[in-house]
Structures are given as C-alpha cells and as structure tokens.
Amino acid sequence: MDQPSGRSFMQVLCEKYSPENFPYRRGPGMGVHVPATPQGSPMKDRLNLPSVLVLNSCGITCAGDENEIAAFCAHVFELDLSDNKLEDWHEVSKIVSNVPHLEFLNLSSNPLSLSVLERRCAGSFAGVRKLVLNNSKASWETVHTILQELPDLEELFLCLNDYETVSCSPVCCQSLKLLHITDNNLQDWTEIRKLGIMFPSLDTLILANNNLTTIEESEDSLARLFPNLRSINLHKSGLHCWEDIDKLNSFPKLEEVKLLGIPLLQSYTTEERRKLLIARLPSIIKLNGSIVGDGEREDSERFFIRYYMEFPEEEVPFRYHELVTKYGKLEPLAVVDLRPQSSAKVEVHFQDKVEEMSIRLDQTVAELKKHLKTVVQLSTSNMLLFYLDQEAPFGPEEMKYSSRALHSYGIRDGDKIYVEPRMK
C-alpha cells in the first residue's frame, strides 16, 4: 500500500529530537537506544525523547514506520499533533496504536472532517483520558465512535467545530468529567440538554461563546440532567433573564459559575453585577474566577434586600423574601458625603468688630491674611490670627504657620477667627 505523501510523524520526530537539535534529556523523558538493523537504520542510534511530545505545526500528513514509532514512543504519555495536515484517521491510528501509554492527545486544527473514523481505528485510542479535537470539524458520528471506544475518557475538547446542534450518542459516556465546547453555534437549550443525557457524570461544562438565549427546563429536570455538575462557564452567552440565573440553583452540586459578558448584566454597574449574582446563587463559592467569602456573601445579600426594597411587589424576586426572612427588613443606608468640605462660614473678630465671612479651606494661612488685609486694615506682617473651634475646650489656637492649609485645622461653619495686631 502506498504511503501518503508529505512529512511523516517519524521523520519530524527524528528531526526535532535528534542529538544535534535536542542534545540533552529534558523533563521526565529518557534517551531511547535502538540498535542498528542488518539493513541499517535511517535514524540516529539515539534520540532524546521526553515523555511529553510537542509536534504541532510540523506539516505531518502520515505516521511513518510503525515499528520505529513503537520503539521510540513506549514511554510517551502526552502527544500534541495540533495544526498539522493529518486528514486520515487511519494514519492517526497508526501513530496512537504504537504509543501504548498515551493519556493526552491533541489533534486540533487537523483536516479530519472528511475522513470516517471506523471503530477498529478508534479502538487504538482506548487508553486516552484527555482528547482535544478543537477546530477539527469532527462530526458527531466521529465523536460517538470515539466515546464508544474510549472507556476511560475524562476530558473532551470540541471547540470551534461549527456545531449548531448536538447529536445524541446511542450510549452514555459515564467517565467524562469535563466538556469544553466553546465557540460553537449552540443557541437552543434543547441541544444543551442532550449533553446532560450523554454525559451524566459531567463535573465541568464550558459553554462560553455560544449564543445560548435561555434555559428552558424545569427545576426537577435540570437536577436529573446534570446531577454532578460542579462548574459551568456561560461567558458571552445570550442569557437575558434573571429567571435563567435562578435556574442554575437547580443543579444540586453546582459551586462555580462564570457569567461575564451576558446581555442581562449590561445595564448594571460592576458592583451591582457581582452582588446581585452572589445573592441569587446561594450555593456558589466561586464567581467569575474569584472566591466568594462569607463576608462578601452577607454584604451581597444585604445589598440585594436594599436594592429591591422600593420595587413594586410584582417585580420583587422570590429570593428577596428568602433573604428578608434571614436578615429581617433593613433600613436604607444613609447617604454620607465623604468629600472634604471646600469652604466654611466663619466669624472674623477684630477689636470690637465682628464680620461673617465665607472662606476657602484649600488656601493657606498666608493667603487668608492677604484676604483679610482690606477687612482689618492691617498688613500681613503685622497680623496675628487665632482660630477658635466652637467645640474646643482649650481656647483659641494661634495660626502661626504661613504655609499650613486651612482645612488642616478642621474649620467648620460657625467657628471663629480672631485677628490681632502684632505687638512691636
């Protein structure tokens, strides 16, 4: 049988990991020695192969000599073949079947969509636990074949595959814990629920960048569909109703949620988004990658009560009544202006005259003296100022430092400033 044209897996392997290009053992890998055959081996006697092989973007189209793959790759457990030119599953099978301890396989961005994956070929993947098929345009029929032949598969990556629908597998995959299916075109919840049927043990579901518009499912049904779901990522989905957020509480084990960039939250401030989400999701311990501590949860739940307390009864969510039962009815927070006072109305006393003035508090004592020159008819060098706080128990304080700002004295409306001539 003619071998496909192009660069082979073994050709690339020898080039990249030859002693000239890869002179030292790296990582947990080891050097592999292959004695020369009577005919003479085209390879070097020794290659320094790590147990994690990265052969992405190397133009690989075929496997090459299977005996040599078996001799050199017996200890390999991770293999990255992404962004190559593999278009025949038979060639992939030749590689994988000769890497007996393979657990992680990345086939992203290989043109495998037109090739049919037969079950006998898929059987060579049996030991793989993590499989990446991003941007491979793998059909659901291919995915189903893989699921039937990979009894230990734990993580599956199906991103950028242009899926608009999900085709249910004839058998459930009980082993899968993580499904990464971002950047597809899944909009209808009826497609997402098929994932729950196929993967009943799912722990993590990453659905970011799918325009999912709503979660159309009863609470009881959601609990049955995803009984083990601990984490869900809905970044940049199309969710636009708080009712959809409330439905996330139906997943009995859910504790981590990611919800950035959804239409529902666009009109809220950053603080409102986080606090309203935390208050509506009482079981969540991590939101958008950040831990939710007990203090933040209580602050958010109290914020939630105050946020909705002025809403009409028909617009108040059920969660509001649950939290009122927990904390009681709260008083609105007092509005406190913490900005520093910029001016004050004071009484200026000079001899037997009293004049009420408004003075800027950002000016210095020297600037105040210039302002008072025309009022008291004294030069600044011949002027002494004393400040009397209306509540001070120790009497007037001399304002002796010309460069000191008035606000540092704590001057308030109603305080007094006494002007006296300097004694010669």
TrEMBL record:
Residues 351-420 form the Ubiquitin-like domain. The keyword Translocase does not apply. SUPFAM superfamilies: L domain-like, Ubiquitin-like. This is Tubulin-specific chaperone cofactor E-like protein. It comes from Serilophus lunatus (silver-breasted broadbill). It is found in: Cytoplasm, Cytoskeleton. Acts as a regulator of tubulin stability. Keywords: Coiled coil, Cytoplasm, Cytoskeleton, Leucine-rich repeat, Phosphoprotein, Repeat. The gene is Tbcel. One of its GO terms (cellular component) is cytoplasm. The keyword Transmembrane does not apply. InterPro entries: Leu-rich_rpt, LRR_dom_sf, TBCEL_Ubl, Ubiquitin-like_dom, Ubiquitin-like_domsf. Its main location: cytoplasm.
